[in-house]
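Much of our argument rests on the idea that a fold can be written as discrete symbols. The amino acid sequence and the backbone structure tokens for this protein are reproduced below:

___
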Amino acid sequence: MENFEDQLENFKNHLDASQQNWLFGAGISFDAKIPLMYPLTNRVENIIDENGCGSDKSILSALKKDLDGGSHIEHYLSHLGDLIAIAERTKDKSATLDNKKRTISSLKTAYTAIIKAIGEIVRYGFKGDEIGTAENPIVEIEYHLNFVEALFSNRSNLESRSKITFFTTNYDTLLEDALALCKKQVVDGFSGGAVGFWNPTKEYSQTLNDSGMHFLYKLHGSVDWYRDDKKGLVRARYGSKYLSDPSNIMIYPQATKYVETQKDPFASLFMGLRSTLSSRTQNVLITCGYSFGDNHINAEIESCLTTVGNNTTVIVFIKEAPDADNDVVINPTLDKWLKNLEFGKRVFVAGEKGLYNNSITPTILDNEDALNWWSFSGLTQFLKTGDVS
């Protein structure tokens, strides 16, 4: 068995690849005071309970009864989306929830109330007893700024020859804001200025190596995207009177479903993920803050790993989450990939207990200290220093 230092050197070589793709999830925004899914769910429920109409409260309560105990706000929205689709096909334009008929109008109203609440929480922040507002936002950007600076600090002479692409399931704008503040040009699929219109065919066709731009794909939408009846999908400023109805925010957790990924903007976004991972040259996908809870994204990654001739290596920064019976070491998806005889050697996991590759048994430091590189701040420090201790 390789010792930790030897395996770490191999790991670093992959991490230094010139063709890098980063996939981020909710975990990277936690320290920035944007809640993870379950605290976000609890806060949305409180907002609906305090400010929602009677129908919204009834539907939210019924959703909680109808879904299993592990469900969160994205599951609520997906379930509501299914019920709305059913109601649209019925003669009386209704669907049954908790043994009660619900009109399509009431279902849509509840859906938009939840979307509006999510938008407010993600824009202004929520952590513990701290509740951000438009007048007093609490969201911090320092962690994202530190990451961007660390990522590019050692690549200043190579940046023109590097291809760094970003994917995120997060609704917040911290990543693109940090990139802009670090003077990195970002292509997000929109043309225009502070107000932009969805134009992916043109924007994502630009050549990264020639332009020095970095593609960003927000796979679940964003709190500054709005669906306008006349103008289509736009990216708009917060607080403007026009194009900013909070109920029209384009965040779409149903993007986890195959059918939704066939519609724009998600068709273009997932096509970007698929094409980026379909590389036959040296290519690396690095994830942080992503818990592998999106089955469609997982399927795209697994498809690339199983494709003959594909040369993508997957590097995951994540904390182990064993189950009560210790049948799961990291999570079911990563455990399966690491044990895969065909492509497990192309999967690396940087966990709290050590470094995993082609096995669910970690290679550990001699002193067996817990490692912090799995967190966003820990990853940033590792990029800066190369030191895991």
Q: What stands out?
A: The two ends are 21 Å apart (CA to CA). The longest helix spans residues 104-124. Residues 255-259 have pLDDT under 50 and may be disordered. The longest strand covers residues 221-228.
